[in-house]
Specification:
With about 325 residues, this protein is an alpha/beta fold. It has helices at about 10-20, 35-45, 55-60, 75-80, 95-110, 125-130, 155-170, 280-295, 300-315; strands spanning about 1-5, 25-30, 65, 85-90, 115, 140-145, 175-185, 195-200, 205-210, 220-225, 230-235, 240-245, 255-260, 265-270. The strands form two sheets. Strands 7-8-9-6-10-11-12-14-13 form a nine-stranded mixed β-sheet. A five-stranded parallel β-sheet has the order 2-1-3-4-5, with helices on both faces.
């Protein structure tokens, strides 16, 4: 078992502590949080060992899980990597692209594994269909949330949209060509609503919308490709796959047949992939353990985390703030 520690014991940090303790792949050593009063309460209530300093925790671990506010990611990650310890770090990987590239390069130098916590990659609905997403040419994603002061220290792009940016970059095998975007600040000092149009060199276009002041929650993405439409509901953990194939000469009475303007007939059929219940955060942590133990590239590498941040920052830079 890998000795694991957590830096940051806020809302998400407590979840990570609980799951690392449950995991059969990790031995939870303890945590460090700069808030001494909160640390004492957590130690007394849950029994997790509180370390007196970040350095003491890092020294005691094989893998360190960074779940601090984003502004502190770089300083924490740098200490972890330079100590030669494996790094799991929540999204976004760092506060700036330069910091992300530095962490990526340091990890290579010190020969450690690193994974970014892009939890939607482990959403069972997305996992059920991602192997079917083949050269999509149009993508539409909506990620809407009710207002919550937690997370408003960063733009809605880094808070919410980056989930969809990362998922889209993982299935579109082409460099980004151009980005158009707009953002509106309603309650926060940073934009609360954002829209982005990402154009790829292969012609694929992705339209993304994110809001954290909506009346209802929504996390949906739709992928359109040649002869197929794939829908993923990340919130409800459901997916739908609609495919088309050349119609048979003698279709049965219940077959759904479409005829295009050229007279070519296509048959529509539905594929309902099996969706397995899971705990996505536990799965991403254990997938990282597997990557460490087998010396393989993590599912969401530091390089991928840096690229998702680069695209997100370009979305922000291109805002036409209203």
């Amino acid at each position: 078992m890998l000795k694991a520690g957590v830096l940051g014991a806020g809302h998400l940090g407590k979840i990570h502590l609980k799951l690392l303790q449950q995991s059969t792949k990790y031995d939870l050593i303890g945590f460090y949080d700069a808030d001494k009063n909160a640390s004492q309460k957590i130690e007394e209530e849950f029994g997790y060992k509180s370390f007196p300093s970040m350095e003491a925790l890092i020294d005691a671990c094989d893998m360190v899980d960074v779940v601090t506010p984003t502004i502190h990611h770089f300083a924490c990650a740098k200490k972890v990597v330079e100590a030669g310890k494996h790094l799991f770090i929540e999204k976004p990987i760092t506060h700036t692209v330069e910091e992300a590239n530095t962490i990526r390069d340091l990890a290579k130098k010190h020969k450690i594994r690193g994974q970014v916590g892009q939890v939607e990659r482990f959403n069972p609905a997305f996992m059920a269909v991602n192997h079917m997403i083949d050269n999509p040419m149009f993508i539409e994603a909506h990620r809407l949330a009710e207002f919550n002061p937690r997370g408003t220290d960063v733009s809605v792009v880094l808070d919410l949209m980056i989930h969809d940016i990362d998922a889209i970059l993982s299935v579109v095998k082409s460099p980004v060509k151009q980005i158009y975007s707009s953002g509106v600040s309603v309650i926060s000092e940073t934009p609360d609503i954002a829209n982005a149009r990402i154009e790829f060199e292969n012609g694929c276009v992705a339209n993304l919308t994110a809001s954290r002041i909506s009346m209802k929650k929504m996390r949906k993405a739709r992928f359109f490709q040649r002869d197929a439409y794939i829908s993923v509901d990340f919130l409800e953990k459901k997916c739908e796959v609609v495919k088309m194939k050349d119609a048979p000469e003698n279709p049965d009475d219940f077959a759904m047949i479409l005829t295009n303007a050229e007279g070519v007939q296509k048959q529509i059929y539905f594929d309902n992939p099996q969706i397995s219940e899971n705990n996505a955060i536990l799965d991403e942590l254990e997938a990282f353990a597997h990557a460490i133990q087998t010396d393989t590239t993590p599912i969401v590498s530091l390089g991928q985390g840096a690229e998702a941040l680069r695209v997100a920052m370009q979305v922000i830079e291109n805002f036409k703030t209203l």
